[in-house]
Design goal:
Elements: H1 16-21, E1 32-38, E2 45-47, E3 55-57, H2 59-71, E4 76-81, H3 99-110, E5 115-120, E6 134-135, E7 138-139, H4 141-158, E8 162-165, H5 172-182, E9 189-196, H6 203-208, H7 229-240, E10 245-249, H8 255-265, E11 269-273, H9 275-286, H10 292-306, E12 310-313, H11 316-322
Parallel strand pairs: 1-3, 1-4, 1-12, 4-5, 5-8, 8-9, 9-10, 10-11, 11-12
Antiparallel strand pairs: 2-3, 6-7
Bound molecules: ligand PBG and zinc ion.
Length: about 325
């Protein structure tokens, strides 16, 4: 490499055309995934206070949002359910007539080219708000695997392209993979939330999904934010169990993890720009402290640059419109 004055990095920054020519990282709408919260009912649209622009919707309204996203070029949608009834074991999670299952069928009928991903977890469906069933106040790993498999199967029956377990139970990818294969759904992919941290950035989501744990927290199953080596072990486990793609979550504060997972596995990597990351950008922009559009795009570009192939973000439609 030559050095100054022969080498002048500023030469290639002189015009927009030059900058575009040598840009290393590109963001494309097709790589963005929009999260939505569906519940039973008709013409229902309830704003989520801590996430401006995000709503809980009935399936008909969700379709409008999905159509707008698809029209902007967004590649996929990830569905979360807000059931009317919750119980100790989260039975509504595998109800073939549930909001998520109904939404999947509607999406596959109306917008077949939009990739449909379903979040597989128990916390939206249990009355205690934990991601699995409880035994003596602790989340009981192995019996939870059967329930997660039932939920994933019902999503597959409805026509989901990808199921995305976000519970962080050990062995869930294996359990779900074999349940899907046993029932003839070998073509349904698994995107595992492999490195999911016990993060304070999930606060606004728990309002949207009405899924805050009623006692204690999720540190007994989600990962400790200080750990990177452990994230790699989690990712390797999930890949060995049959995950087709792996997710890192949250995204912005964990760019080092995204980068390592991509470099060390070569698998498709998704990153979830979570509710708190979204809310912070919206709140600061609302106060006029930052420029919303530029910070939104920069935050997404940073996640791409770190190595994410797919980005799950509440900005999906808005960002896609700018691309
Ligand atoms: C459910 C789940 C959560 C998120 C995605 N799936 C919440 C949690 O684990 O408490 C968070 C998404 C967000 O904050 O946007 N297990
Ligand atoms: Zn959960």
């Amino acid at each position: 490499m030559s050095s100054f004055p022969q080498y002048r990095p500023r030469r290639l920054r002189r015009t927009a055309a030059l900058r575009n020519l040598v840009r290393e990282t590109h963001l494309s709408a097709a790589q963005l995934v929009l999260p939505v919260f569906v519940r039973d009912g008709k013409k229902l649209r309830r704003a989520v206070g801590s996430m401006p622009g995000v709503n809980q919707t009935s399936v008909d309204e969700m379709l409008r949002d999905a159509e707008a996203a698809a029209k902007a070029g967004v590649g996929g949608i990830i569905l979360f359910g807000v059931p009317e009834k919750k119980d100790a074991t989260g039975t509504a999670a595998w109800d073939d007539k549930g909001a998520v299952q109904t939404a999947v069928r509607a999406l596959k009928k109306e917008i077949p080219d939009l990739v449909v991903i379903t979040d597989v977890c128990m916390c939206e469906y249990t009355d205690h708000g934990h991601c699995g069933i409880l035994k003596d106040g602790d989340v009981d790993n192995d019996p939870t695997l059967e329930l997660l498999s039932r939920a994933a199967l019902s999503h597959a029956r409805a026509g989901a392209d990808i199921v995305a377990p976000s519970d962080m139970m050990d062995g869930r990818v294996q359990a779900i993979r074999s349940a899907l294969d046993d029932k003839g759904h070998s073509g349904v992919s698994i995107l595992s939330y492999a490195a999911k941290y016990a993060s304070a950035y999930y606060g606004p989501f728990r309002e949207a999904a009405e899924s805050a744990p009623q006692s204690s927290d999720r540190r007994g199953y989600q990962m400790d934010p200080g750990n990177a080596q452990e994230a790699m072990r989690e990712v390797v486990c999930d890949i060995q169990e049959g995950a087709d793609a792996v997710m890192v979550k949250p995204a912005g504060p964990y760019l080092d993890i995204i980068s390592r997972v991509k470099a060390e596995t070569g698998y498709p990597v998704a990153a979830y720009q979570v509710s708190g990351e979204y809310a912070m950008i919206c709140a600061a922009a609302d106060r006029g402290w930052i420029e919303k559009d530029r910070v939104m795009m920069e935050s997404l570009l940073g996640i791409r640059r770190a190595g994410a192939d797919v980005i799950v973000t509440y900005f999906a439609t808005e960002a896609a419109r700018q691309l």
